[in-house]
# Entry
Amino acid sequence: MMKRTLLSLLLCFTVYAVQAQSTSDEQDKVKWFTNARFGMFIHWGLYSAAEGIWKGERLRNGNNYAEWIRYRNRISETEYVRLAKRFDWDKIDPEQWVLLAKKAGMKYILITAKHHDGIAIWNSKVSANNLSKLSGTDRDVLKELAAACKKHGMKLGFYYSHWLDWEHPDGWDHNQEITGRITDEQYNKYWQGKVLPQLRELLTNYGDIAMIWFDMWVDYKSTIVKKEQLDQVINLIHELQPACLINSRLGLPANYPGIDFETMGDNQLGAVYTSHPWETSGTIANSWGYNALENEYKSTSQLLQSLIGNVSLNGGFTLNIGPRADGSVPYEDQTRLDEMGAWLDKNGESVYGCTGLGLRPDQHDWGRITTKTLDHKQIVYLQVYNWPLDRILRLTGILSKPEKAELITDAGKVNLNFVQTGPYTHIQLPNAAGDHLVSVIALTYPQPVELDEKVAAESTFDGTALTGSNTSEKKSSYKNVPFDGLRPSHLVIDKTGVLTWRVYIPGPGTYNADLSYHHNSKTAMQVKISVGDQQRLQSLKPTGKVVVEPHDSYTDEFVNNQIGEFVFPKEGFYDITLTAHPKEQEKLLLNRIWLSKKP
Ligand code: GLC
# Structure
């Protein structure tokens, strides 16, 4: 008996040790990627020469994705391949893309080696339908790009459309959902005859490949691709280049063995802290491939905030450019990248190698937080999107006291004064922001910071909003409804229950409270708001509708109701509770309680 226990213990230990080993190997493998945080996507292929216009007609899809033009505008193979003649090889220079990425502070380049149109942009031996052959050049863009990346110390990855292929007779396009034309056997011919051999070329002829980025945004079970086929791809990559990363759009979940990081939906930014590696691929306007009709470009600060927001949730950002058929990068793309590069040059320490803090992701109305450990100290970076008018930056949730606070400016780091009380850090700001786009304040802590992730955050504007998303405890389950363009975010209180918020009060004082809500019951609804034994009973009248646009558009009206005053006898943490008893069919939509010190 004893022997068996010992043996199973030993076995357990070995399994555990092997698992721990493989997890740490996986972490090592992906480390460069989770440190990099910012990379360049390049969508460049035959479609680039169509520029989103076919025979005078714009793309037949509202998303403007110009790389889809062959499918969307129902272009024949014969006509489509003629686009190759528009490529200007005297001008095409992949080194320029690498230099642009480098200047932008990007740490890797990902290029569409083969997009859904099925046309390889390299000189592929597997299919004569490739850009080099079709446009009559002996140049291999990927060879040149790989050499330039090597020269400038840039990681290189390939996008490969494995699922969709509109060129191969046995490849998949969405219309086959209607025609049912392709059988599993035919599709496997495409897989064995094109996908695997082309991946082999990509992983053999271009040196170290940092990642292969696949593009199937549905679960493989819902389409023609088989798990065995995906496993073949993973095995091939592991055999040829074990260090090469694979993204989840292969069609498998992020935790499937062999998937190294998760790719979110297009332009879908993170919403919650996610501990496994992940990234968002994003565009500067709408299309990925060059589209001449684009005119809605995102601002540099919007793009920067996308990058910072993702890093604050442990993710990265792969930002796309769509060069034209002569290789040139549109001016609008270039200016954004140059500005982001200049910002990163100055503030990059708050992005590279950083992750997020375990506080509510969007609890501060001035911006976001990133963090890293440096020389055994924890650095917390406050990413200030909006410079407070009263020149006080209010940080909530860190109980530890920083040893210093510094603002990053063009002239270097400037020390700032601050006051630490409980979970509040108030930083005294100079008049001028540290940066026109996003200002960064670095707080240095001698040890890992101690957090209070339950306490409600102070607003920049003299008070604290207690909402459905910052309760410390909810006795009943209520639905949180986000801002829908007309109605504010609110909590739907449809049964009896108690909500609790944890607040911090820095010293004795009297506070005002008011409550913003909507309900359309026939009679008033009763709620009770309490702090310790101080209770305020409220009778909330029905609120009705408010006109959005004259004559035809009305929405629920949310009104503000005074609750009264609460006296806090001393410094410390307090619980504020709200008790509601809606009757059958009644709903109280709670927007917030606003708590602010009496002037
Ligand atoms: C989508 C599109 C594709 C684009 C990609 C980038 O999957 O089909 O055109 O390449 O997203 O994220």
Observations:
- The longest strand covers residues 509-518.
- The chain has a mean pLDDT of 94.
